[in-house]
Amino acid sequence: MKVQKVSQSITPFAGISFVNQEFNDSGLLSLIDTHLGIRTLSGYQYGEIFRAWFDIFFCGGEVAEDIQKYLRPTLENIPFNRVPSADTLHRVLKELATDNTTVSSVSDKDYQFNINENLNDLNIKSLLLTKQLNKNEFYDFDYDNQIIAHNKYDAKHTYKKTTGYFPGIATIADKIVYIENRDGNTNVKTGQAETLERAYQLLGNNGIKVNRSRMDAGSYSKEIIDTVAKNSKLFYIRANRCTAMTNQISEITNWKSIEINLMRWNQFFFLQFFQDRKYRLAVMREKNKDGQTNIFTGDNFIYRSILTNDWNSSEEDIIKYYNMRGASEKIFDVQNNDFGWSRLPSSDMNCNTVFLILTAMMKNFYNYLIDKVSEVFEDIPPTSRIKRFIFSFISVAGK
């Protein structure tokens, strides 16, 4: 084997040049600088620092220090590209952080929330800029709380017996549109109505309208349902069981078969919270696996219910639409494994909130980028995870 040393201008990550060019040409660099303002007169600007964070993950890195140890020679060979240090990348997380807010539950327990409306607003504006969202159009809105496990000093015990945060995350299709961080031990319903109000308000301020909202049983309370109903044309929320509901279900005799996981369905009007409104409750049931009789229902069925104000769709359509929530939950897997949520960079919640929103912007930009790349390269489909994109497009030797 003969080994030959080549010029330093040869890089194993040639594809990153095209990513940077698209980042600049899309207008994101200018938008970030305009929205966040001038950082320093002579130092690195926010747009350059965001781009550097993007470059780390688009080259297969995981932490800010990777830019120092592995990527700097490659990135500095890109014309007009200034590359900040890892210390600068960490410093900006602190600069853009907001103070935590104390939120009290109905039982007078205090929890720490971190609300960063400025960066969430920037994220929505970036989606509008890249035409992934359009003003004055209606979209379907999903909300969920996701445990982010970590062992930082401010981690709290979660219901999954881990430690970490429990942020509320709103999505539209495969795009994250709002993130609000909270202590890992926070009850899912605590402060959720206010979180949703802020998310809806920020979308509305940017001309984004909500057609349907879809949420799990963690959003099943009168206050939250009021907020969702006020800000959506239609809503679909998984209902928690209660005595009144159990009594009504036990009176149902005309169960009908439906080909959705061999479930049976029925429906009735729902008046537990709202005596002045007739919300519809679609009820599904399927036999449990062990065949044991439930002491409350007197049968061996598992019941699931969806509360909605949709009276035009069939029960089957309501169930199918709600079950599509699994597609939105896949986003959390992508963020954890592809965009750094499993390795938070800071020991402070407010700095980590900045990182969560920044990497959400990164994922949204990746959606925009992969759509353009897939139009040219047939072997890189638009559904490609970032690892495949890196191997196929970024990790190509070039000069």
Describe the 3D structure.
This protein is α+β, with helices and mostly antiparallel strands and 399 residues long. Helices cover 39% and strands 19% of the residues. The protein is built from 13 helices and 14 strands. The strands form 2 sheets. An 11-stranded mixed β-sheet has the order 1-2-8-7-3-9-10-14-13-12-11, sandwiched between helices. Helix 6 (117-129) runs parallel beside helix 12 (349-374) and helix 7 (192-205) packs parallel to helix 8. It is elongated, with a radius of gyration of 24 Å. The two termini are 23 Å apart. The mean pLDDT is 91.
Please give the structural blueprint.
Layout: H1 16-25, H2 28-36, H3 46-58, H4 65-76, H5 86-95, E1 101-104, E2 110-114, H6 117-129, E3 138-145, E4 148-149, E5 156-157, E6 163-165, E7 168-172, E8 175-182, H7 192-205, E9 209-215, H8 222-231, E10 234-239, H9 243-250, E11 256-257, E12 264-270, E13 279-287, E14 301-308, H10 315-323, H11 325-338, H12 349-374, H13 386-394
Parallel strand pairs: 3-9, 9-10
Antiparallel strand pairs: 1-2, 2-8, 3-7, 4-6, 5-6, 7-8, 10-14, 11-12, 12-13, 13-14
Helix pairs in contact: 2-3, 2-6, 6-12, 7-8
